[in-house]
Amino acid sequence: MNSRARWMAIIDLYSKRQGRERNGVNDVYTYDEFSSKFRIQLSMMIEELLGGIEDVYRGGKPRDAYEGLVKILRKEYGLSHLVSAARSFTPDYFSEIHDFLSVEVDVEKVLDAVELAYQLGNRFARHSSYRLAYMDDSDDHVDACIEELNGRFKEAGYGYAFVEDNILRVDSEFLHSEVVKPAIHFLNFEGFEAARNEFLGGYDHYRHKRYKEALADAGKSFESTMKIICGLNGWTFKPTDGANKLIQVLVDKEFLPSIHQAHLSGIHTVLSAGIPTLRNKWGSHGDGDTISEVHPDVVAYGLHLTASAIVLLGSLQENHPNAIEDKTKI
């Protein structure tokens, strides 16, 4: 770890250790409110990623990044300024975004700003010319910034993470590490772009409480994954085939393991009854005379079931004779 990266590490202070001894480790995430302490940490982390006030005053790319960040949010929200105090003849984009992080009540809008800032960091701050201070290790610097952000979310007990250029809602650290991230890994294979976008779209809908859309995108990503696998292996299917027919193709082609019939039947039942049933019951049909409520826990189950199925399918394809080469950076 170089001296600069050391400052971005999360230090296990004495007071933190004592707090854990007294209160235990908090494994229940919250989502709807950020503390003042955490908001200050967000500002500090974004400064480390995009540049501090000195970098902005020098002009160049850090100033452009802050200007882009503020102008995008202004346009999306339909506001002339993100905070009322920002009204002046000389725009101060740096102060405006950091004031916004400090005072904005809506956590989802704060996350909008964080997500966009880190997307800009991924796009621009990885270039050696972005800031002279990090010209020799710009990639490592951005990676360290992202790692710290996710560590701070976890440390504060907030159920969010920045993964693959998106803020995702995290319901369980175990599920996130063992199911969601491996699913994204497989969807990063070349040719799986459509399924990946649908999968991440489902989690984005979930974070914004668009629960029916989340289930619909989960179902689409599940079906797209199977269609892509069928295409890679030269197996015939119709573009209009749904999940059940696609699963049957995989079973007929002995793509799914058949060493133990009971295990195969169990997998087949979960794949054919789990995700499609959730999607068909709540996500893809009209409400009729009444507006149906979709409980968040049901949606979380559907998303995690989708991720588990993709991990299974991806693992099988990775070990198949027609396996695709992983060209991604993990």
From TrEMBL:
DUF7014 domain span: 192-314
Q: What Pfam families has UniProt attached to this entry?
A: AbiJ_NTD4, DUF7014
Q: Report what the protein is called.
A: Abortive infection protein-like C-terminal domain-containing protein
Q: Which residues form the HEPN AbiJ-N-terminal domain?
A: 12-182
Q: Which NCBIfam families match?
A: STM4504_CBY0614
**UniProt organism field:** Pseudomonas amygdali pv. mori
